[in-house]
């Protein structure tokens, strides 16, 4: 009990006292951080062979977007039979999480901008909608016009086609497809993934040692409780 109280005190902030339940709850949080359970993900495009050039490119990027290595933004402009032009910027990662993409990859459905996407514009009626996604925030800049701010690393994507570069850690590629009038992909390498990649070895080792030291003390306490209670 004395050791439990000591460990509880080490896990508190000034003016805060932990009881046993709160201690074990925080212990579990530390264990989850040190030994995270990998979340399974399903690749919709796996074992499929898309024929449309856009779907081929998106299939290549599906895994990277699901793992948050990339955050791809899709600009699509449609001009269907009724001559009603619709365009918009789509957060690919967000649409992957909220939609079944099998019909898209199989060519049974076309990718249309929605009013819930980053931007949506209906040219005939002049309807425009701007939304914040889980990855991007549209920003109107007086100099550069529309910018897409990455929420995670706070870097901007410049969607101006005349811009020399689309932004830091971002590449731009135009896709030519008979199914779509105009398509551009903006691939942004997530800053969070890069920071994790470039954390100094000494810093990582120090964090691991500190966490393992705490866990060792906690496990020792649990062992003593199990054997002497």
UniProtKB/TrEMBL annotation:
Q: Does the keyword Cytoplasm apply?
A: yes
Where in or outside the cell it occurs: the entry states:
Cytoplasm; Nucleus
Residues annotated as coiled-coil are none
Q: Which Pfam families match?
A: DUF4464
- GO cellular component, as recorded: cytoplasm; nucleus
Keywords in UniProt for this one? Cytoplasm, Nucleus
Q: What does this protein do?
A: May be involved in spermatogenesis.
* Protein name, entry field: Cilia- and flagella-associated protein 299
Species annotation: Vespula maculifrons
Upper classification of the organism: Eukaryota, Metazoa, Ecdysozoa, Arthropoda, Hexapoda
């Amino acid at each position: 009990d004395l050791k439990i109280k000591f460990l509880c005190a080490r896990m508190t902030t000034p003016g805060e006292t932990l009881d046993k339940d709160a201690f074990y709850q925080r212990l579990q949080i530390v264990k989850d951080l040190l030994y995270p359970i990998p979340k399974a993900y399903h690749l919709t495009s796996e074992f499929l062979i898309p024929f449309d050039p856009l779907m081929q490119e998106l299939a290549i990027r599906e895994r990277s977007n699901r793992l948050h290595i990339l955050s791809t933004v899709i600009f699509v402009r449609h001009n269907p039979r009724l001559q009603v032009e619709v365009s918009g910027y789509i957060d690919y990662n967000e649409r992957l999480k909220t939609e079944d993409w099998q019909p898209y990859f199989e060519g049974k459905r076309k990718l249309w901008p929605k009013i819930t996407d980053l931007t949506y514009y209906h040219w005939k009626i002049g309807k425009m909608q701007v939304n914040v996604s889980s990855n991007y925030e549209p920003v109107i800049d007086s100099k550069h016009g529309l910018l897409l701010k990455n929420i995670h690393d706070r870097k901007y994507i410049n969607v101006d086609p005349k811009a020399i570069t689309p932004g830091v850690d971002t590449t731009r590629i135009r896709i030519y497809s008979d199914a779509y009038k105009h398509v551009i992909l903006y691939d942004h390498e997530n800053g969070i993934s890069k920071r994790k990649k470039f954390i100094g070895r000494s810093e990582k080792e120090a964090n691991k040692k500190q966490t393992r030291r705490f866990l060792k003390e906690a496990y020792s306490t649990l062992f003593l409780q199990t054997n002497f209670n």
